Each structure stands twice: as C-alpha cells, then as structure tokens.
Amino acid sequence: MAYAKIKKENCPHLGEMKILTSDAKKCEKCEETTNLRLCTSCGRVFCCESHMGHNKEHFKETGHPIIVPLPTSSPFTWIWCWEDNAYLE
Ligand SMILES: [Zn+2]
Ligand SMILES: [Zn+2]
Ligand SMILES: [Zn+2]
Known about the structure:
Order of helices and strands: EEEHEEE
Strand content: 15-25%
Number of domains: 1
CATH class: Alpha Beta
CATH topology: Herpes Virus-1
Largest sheet: 6 strands, mixed
Bound molecules: zinc ion
CATH superfamily: Zinc/RING finger domain, C3HC4 (zinc finger)
Strand order of the largest sheet: 1-6-5-4-2-3
Number of strands: 6
Helix content: 10-25%
Number of helices: 1
C-alpha cells in the first residue's frame, strides 16, 4: 500500500506538535513495547497499526493529528498526520 506524502508547510496541523519526545516504553492501553507512536499533541504513547492500532484509536477519540515514532530522533524518522492521512516531508 502506498502512502501519500505532503510538504510539511501544506499541513495545517503542524502547530499542534507540542510534545516532541517521551521516554515511555510501552503503549498505555495494551502494554505493547515495539513500534510505539508518540502523540505530539498530548505526549501520550500508543502502539501502531501493526499491533492494536491504539494510536489511531487515540486520534479518533481526541482529534490529535500528528504522531512520530518512538524512540524519537532528530530529525524524526518520519512524521504522520492523521488529518491529512499522509507523511509530512
Ligand atoms: Zn495535517
Ligand atoms: Zn496498544
Ligand atoms: Zn494525544
């Protein structure tokens, strides 16, 4: 499956990236410890869609749009916007 990529400056949600790192080691819902995603709006950490998909569930519940992979790196390995359904580059 191919994913869309858009320019960062074309994502209107970038301003919601407030929390850029976390030392959490597991998904707070299912305790999955791999492929973790950080919600950059609130700093909570959830698993990705190859596990229980709790980060997507978090987006549906809260509307928090942007996630990055944990552990975080600088620059980020990737940035995903749920609202745009695209990677930001
Ligand atoms: Zn966006
Ligand atoms: Zn989970
Ligand atoms: Zn959040």
